[in-house]
Amino acid sequence: MRIDRTHRAWAIASLAILAISFLVYVIYALKTPQGPRGGSAIGLLFGIIGFCFMIFAALLGARKRVPTWRLGRAQAWMRGHLWLGLLALPMILFHGGFHFGGTLTRVLMWLLIVTVASGIFGAALQHYLPSVMTSDVPLETIYDEIGHVRSLLWEEADRAVEAVSENLGFTKSTVEETQRAGGFTALRPIAATAVPLRTSAAVSAGASAAVAAAPQIILLSKEQSAPLRSFYFNEMRPFLERPKRGTRLADVAASSSTFAGLRTLLPAAVHATLNDLEDICDEARQLARQEQLHRWLHGWLLVHIPLSLALILLGAVHAVMALRY
Amino acid sequence: MTTSATPPGMVEISIDGKSVRVPARTTVFDAARMNGISIPILCHLQNQTPVGVCRLCVVDTGARVLSASCVRPVEPGMKVVTNSGKVLNARKTLLELLMSDHPSPCARQEKSGDCELESLAKSAGITQPRFVKRAVTRGEDDSSLAIAVDHDACILCDRCIRGCDEVKNNFVLGRMGKGYSAGIAFDLNAPMGDSTCISCGECMVSCPTGALTNKGLAGTVIAAGTNAEIFEAEELLRIPVFKGVSGTFLELNRGAIVKRRLHKGEVICREGEFGSTAFYIVEGRARVSISSPIAHVKTEGGAKGFFKKLTSALVGRDEDKREDEARDRTIPIDASVDLSYGNPVAELGPGDLFGEMTCMNFYPRSATVVAESDAVVYEMLRNVLDIMFKNKTFRAQLDETYRRRALENHLRGVPMFADLSPEFIEHLKAGIELQRFAPGQTIVQQGDAADSFYLVRIGFVKVSESYPGGEMVLAYLSRGDYFGEIGLLGGGIRTATCTALDHVELVRISGDDFRDMVARFPSVRAGLEVIAAERSAANQQRLQMVHSVPIDQFLSQGLMEAQSLLILDLQNCTRCDACVNACADAHDGITRLVRDGLRFDRYLVATSCRQCRDPLCMVGCPVGSIRRRNSLEVIIEDWCIGCGLCARNCPYGNINLHPFEVLADDAENAGRKKAVIKQKATSCDLCTHLKEPSCVYACPHDAAHRVDPKQFFAEMLGQGSAK
């Protein structure tokens, strides 16, 4: 979620709560000779408020499980999760008087700190990365479809190379004419023979010009096509199957110069094919970038969610033990 | 003269002493035809542009010379005489002149005895023309495998040329030569067999004489089953409904019509199937039905059980009902009856025609028809049905069936007409005219005088408005829709052009009846005025958009046509798919949106119904289940038969087909039902049962919005106010 001006009300309210709490805490700390304690009335109040904030923040996960229930807009829940979850940390610090206490409370306190920190980290990622993904990946597709789109890309590349040289010997999918990669164009059948196969994302991004049928091209002799086949087998095909960082094609500038070099080695009649292959590499690179950004966007949740659950569970244990014993 | 009582756009003339009122620009021939006065014609066909070359339709309009009535427009106060001695003498002379240039009997007269020229000459009592026959021969052309050309029998009426150019748009035929050697020519006077002619036969069917005749080598045959009998032309001509049909045509189309004898319980056609034939019942009865329209195309409210009720309360589901659902609904089908929503079954009997839309427009069958008793039906292809519709006897019979069985339902189906009294409906039934239009034919022209109100009975009508530099489609109208009220209630001038998209049939209510109706029923007037005002305002708004939207991409993506877009702000969207999950949750686990699509600026226009102003998806639905009610959203009704036409028509891929379990008749156990899987079309319904689209409600990142594009993108498009 982007933290922008629309969060102003929540930010002001949170600051007000923090300021009031801080004021109460300072007065309470100054007036209590033996220092602030979690078991005192004020300390307990801070603890209850902090734990309520944590529970509310944790309930966002449950809220997402019932998206159509009219329990308030998910957007409001998310804002509450962000700001109240953040406030939980000072509340619990006020609750413990900035002491970490025994083993359980120490664990709890560190859990809270790491959970809030991971949340802040995640919020920062979700603030910045969508813009980065929008600008860096114009050919974005649905994340779950990336594997399928990638397989379509290499099939398209195979066909492009085979069109100017000889058969590469790869087996091809037989269902490509009836079903395209998931997403926008997947909903309509496209005859494989009508146009060179492109992915949904290419069309999504308005790259319809790239979909146009290739101009008439010649079939190269074995000697003529050797540089292309060598490049394709050794670099491009492996890259399309499994894009790895550090390879030439993973870098925009290096890829561009690689293709420029190929153009000098191959006749002008196949330059249109090289352009297509370069576009395919570009799309594969974008898909790799999308995967990378997607993992950043959602990967932090693998830390944040289990920690949050542990925090709630141990917090409840702490509350029961503290109140009972 | 145009009296003070003559409505705007109408002209009053007298024909043979009878005072008649017709729309301005009507030809004298049409004015006479509309008032039951017959004028002989030869070069004129009602589905072609009149040219007035044969002059046989001359009438006396009081001018210096006689006028060809097929091209002479009426004028206020015109006094027309169609049968004076002067007129009859002129026609007789013309016939004699034409006969002197025509071999008698010609090939057509010999084969089927229906050469129009020779028939007219015979009825005028001409046996031996006074004039000398032409000495020069123009020859014959036998090069085509299908059609024989006898240039000597040609009377240069141009009907074949107009048929080739206007009706079929083949542009093969034209005129060649001068004087006695003038004749028709294929391409640049090539032999017919060597020309670009595709032997469609339109020229031959249009030809009034034996100049173009069938060689009997080409024909069309319906794939006949064991119960099919093929007719010979002579046999067909003895059947009353084929009276008046060209023998040449029937001979050419031998096999395009078959007689089927059916046993009780035999299925004649099934809903959803594609076909190309229509059926005419001669004997027996048939049951027409659609299988169980009750299925969950939309998620229903009305939960049962405590937890379901609690869930429903939390979800905030309303009953998915709109204002106009309170009254009884009917399902339009491709027959002379509509089906009741509650009990979608009806009976057809002798004289009923069904499958017309499938035959003429190749739409899927809208219903299943089963022989209720032993029955005899004629099954025919489009060309036969087309020619039969030109037969006035057949048309009159069909029209009468429609008036008797479906017109009242059709009229009452228009919300504004619900208050009409039964007496007035009866009055309208007698006065209405049923009109047919071919694909592409203009029904009303923007700027013309408004003289009628139309209800769409069959087919789809495109409503468009011209503006400097182009044409803007305002709407597509289908069965049950109406048009023409703006012109009649306003200044008497048509504000838009209406064009038949396919084979269209309309119920025409004359301007007089319309005015009478709005005067007698204030509620009708009020309702129509509101609708007219709304339509005018919407049209104005749309045209303003055309002038003010500068961005090519906005136009090329069709965003201007959308009324409600689901957009995702890509700078906010974390690609968490909460919108997709919410949509699936709201619709029985099947999402109606795909988080992919075209990008406009930093927004992703998600693949979800756009509620287009120009909803192409509605064009062709055989049962009218995809439609607009009195709200903006395009909805798919429960009686969808799953033919998939709407999904194919949607340019944005926003309609999908999904399997649903429904109850249907069990073929093995009569009278019992069993669960079967049926495809039904689904598209975004804006979660009307949930107050707000679930995708928007469930988006935690403030990324998903349902917006009116022209408002939302106003600032970006340089229109001042921002979203």
Summarize the structure.
The complex is a heterodimer of chains A (325) and B (723). Chain A is an all-alpha fold and 325 residues long. Chain A has helices at 8-31, 41-65, 74-96, 103-136, 146-164, 200-204, 222-241, 252-265, 271-299, 301-324.
For the sheet with most strands of chain A, the description reads: none
Major sheet: arrangement of strands of chain B = 11-12-21-14-19
Most extensive contact: A-B, 41 and 36 residues
N-C termini distance of chain A: 42 Å
- The helix/strand series of chain A, from N terminus to C terminus, equals HHHHHHHHHH
* Mass-distribution shape of chain A: elongated
Tertiary shape of chain B: globular
Task: Give your account of this protein's structure.
The complex is a heterodimer of chains A (325) and B (723). Chain A is built from ten helices and no strands. With 325 residues, chain A is mainly α. The longest helix of chain A has 34 residues, at 103-136. Chain B has a five-stranded antiparallel sheet with strand order 11-12-21-14-19. In chain B, helix 2 crosses helix 4 (116-123) and helix 16 (511-520) packs across helix 17. Chain B is globular. Classes of the chains: A mainly alpha (325), B alpha+beta (723). The interface between A and B is large, with 41 and 36 residues.
